[in-house]
Amino acid sequence: MSKHMLSVNNLEVTFVSGLDQIHAVRGVSFDVKPGESYGIVGESGSGKSTVLRAICGLAPTSGGALHLNGTEIATPRRPDFYRQVQMVFQDPYASLHPRHTIDSVLSEPLAIQGFDRRDERIAQALEDVGLGVGFRFRYPHQLSGGQRQRVAVARALILEPQVMLLDEPTSALDASIQAEVLNLLERLRAERGLTYVMVSHDLAVISHMCERLLVMEHGLAVEELTREDLRARRAKTDYTAKLLRASAGYTKEDVPA
Amino acid sequence: MSLLDVQNLYVTFPTRNGPVDVVRGVSFNLGRERLGIVGESGSGKSQTGRAILGLTPPPGSARADQLSFEGTDLRNLTPKQWRKLRGKRMSMVMQDPKFSLNPVMAVGKQLMEVLRTHGAGRAAAKQAALEMLEAVQIRDPERVFRAYPHELSGGMGQRVMIAMMLVSQPDLLIADEPTSALDVTIQIEVLRILDRLVAERGMGLIFISHDLRLVSSFCDRVLVMYAGRVVEELKASELEQAKHPYTQGLINCLPDIDEDRHPLPVLDRDGAWAE
Questions:
Q1: Could you say which of A174, A183, A242 has the minimum Cβ distance to residue B185?
Q2: Residues 191-250, chain B: which have Cβ within 8 Å of A?
Q3: Residue of B137, B188, B257 with shortest CB distance to A246
Q4: 3-state secondary structure of B169
Q5: Which family is this sequence assigned to (chain B) (predicted)?
Q6: Pairing mode, if any, of strands B172-176 and B204-209?
Q7: CB contact under 8 A, B40 and A180
């Protein structure tokens, strides 16, 4: 077992469209310990989701190295990579196939990875995320947003991964449903010793879920903080301080910068 | 006299299982102040805002015992009378600039259209449009004036929409989640613009949002909606003393940077709240 579950070294992502080159991630590095929950915060366009997608092999990396458990991650990703690393996407309305039942959504990864006891595993996964087998043969449109996100979590968990990449898992949900999904994610992490990398624009959500976090702006890592730093408002950079102020709500006396 | 008076507002949609009331008996008065309407998806907060402007989408329909704007009864206006009111006296900012701006029309032309429709001359309209773009903190108004919506970022698009709604200097602005699609830092800038307009022009503002924390820090008064009803009305500053279990639950289930509560309290919905 290596010291770091996941390490990202000088990651660069460049999108090329025609003659334009967009440098979305510019030299980002961080390490995540086994069993840790690591947060990435930033505003839209900061490259935070792209980092997750790059780890998953969904965005083209143009530089840097990625290590999982001490071994370099191969490109293209091998099937066994996805047994260890799974991702939950932001919008549960877009990430589930509208014409597939929950059963087929959950059995597809099992079939690809050649798992046995599929029937039991599907029932167990639905039980684990608090849905129950009654949901097994429904379609996504018969579920609410929170229930869909539970299905997305079940789909990721069914392969028994060690690392979960969570891309704004609650930003499309109502506040009360957000609390339920966050509790679910916390419980699953405690039960299974999972490692999380969670992306969000909401500092309060990140400080609730993660022990350490990285602040990103314009594709650059601005600074790394611990939860305690965040609570004590120990921001080293102006940008983090500005984010902290803005997340506290609207203040009248605040003069525009 | 209050700016807007709403008594016993109902919005009804026909469904296969008979008519469903999505707004049920909402009443409130609005002066020249900032009123927040908070609720989760499906609580009827947006439909309340739309009904005030007569924009309930068919086949839905709205009815009320009283619905008046500065003494004008809004319930039985003809389309022609509505056109005189909407845009000029009262207007609405929608949630997403991607769907609310005309994609094949330059921003400046869309801004001028509001004024031209209400009788302003071309030169005056252009002047006012440029000034308004400046007022919403757009740094290069001339460029944005000529730009098409796809050439603007989300935050810029949202500011353009706010400019468009304010260029005619309405007395009442209904803002339906005007900042939900924006980053937190831009969100604060947009609120500051709205705040200034309320203070300087004495505009009435209805701010519809799901974000309780934001609303309580921005508005003077808050209506909390659940299942089509107003379950509680509060001064924004007294939100902490909310009495209704739904409001308390909504406040409690938000994670906070300074608090360590694991697991987060979840909302236990009581069937009686919807009665």
A1: A242
A2: 191-192, 195, 210-214, 216-218, 249-250
A3: B188
A4: coil
A5: Belongs to the ABC transporter superfamily.
A6: parallel
A7: no
Structure tokens given for B257:
């940077």
Assess B105–A contact: CB distance below 8 Å, yes or no: no
Kindly determine whether residue B213 and residue A249, on different chains, have CB atoms separated by under 8 Å: yes
The verdict on a CB contact (< 8 Å) between B255 and A179 is: yes
Pairing of β B4-15 and β B172-176: unpaired
Q: How much is the average pLDDT of B50-72?
A: 92
A78 in reach of chain B (CB within 8 A): no
Domain B4-89+174-274 matching CATH 3.40.50.300: the answer reads: yes
What's the confidence (pLDDT) of residue B37? 94
Q: How far is B266 from chain A (nearest CA, A)?
A: 6
Q: Which chain B residue has its CA at the smallest distance from A44's CA?
A: B183
- CB contact under 8 Å between B210 and A174, yes or no, is yes
Burial, A53: exposed, middle or buried (Cβ in 10 Å; 0-12, 13-18, 19+)? buried
- Pull the structure tokens for residue B240: 């902490």
The whole-number average pLDDT for the span B42-49 is 91
CATH code assigned to A6-246: 3.40.50.300
**Across B50-54, B63-67, B96-100, least confident range:** B96-100
Domain ranges of chain A: 6-246
Boundaries of every domain in chain B? 4-89+174-274, 100-169
Among A47, A66, A45, A60, residue whose Cα is nearest residue A14: A60
CB contact under 8 A, A186 and B263: yes
Instruction: Name the DSSP class of B251.
Output: H
Rounded to two decimals, the pTM is: 0.85
Tokens in use for B217?
A: 């820090």
3-state secondary structure A71-129: EECCCCCCHHHHHHEEEECCCCCCCCCCCCCHHHHHHHHHHHHCCCCHHHHHHHHHHHC
Paired tokens of B98: 């991607």
* Cross-chain Cβ contact B255/A205 below 8 Å: yes
Chain A: residue whose CA lies nearest to B263? A183
Contacts of B254 in chain A (CB under 8 A): 175, 179, 204
- CA torsion A145-B219-B92-B153 (nearest 10°) is -70
pLDDT for position A256: 46
The two beta strands, B90-93 and B72-73, are: unpaired
Q: What is the pLDDT along chain A (257 residues), one digit of tens a residue?
A: 568 999 999 999 998 877 778 889 999 999 999 999 999 998 877 889 999 999 999 999 999 999 999 999 988 899 899 999 999 998 888 889 999 999 999 999 999 999 999 999 999 999 999 898 999 999 999 998 889 999 999 999 999 999 999 999 988 888 888 999 999 999 999 999 999 999 998 899 999 999 999 999 989 999 999 999 999 999 999 999 988 888 887 876 554 44
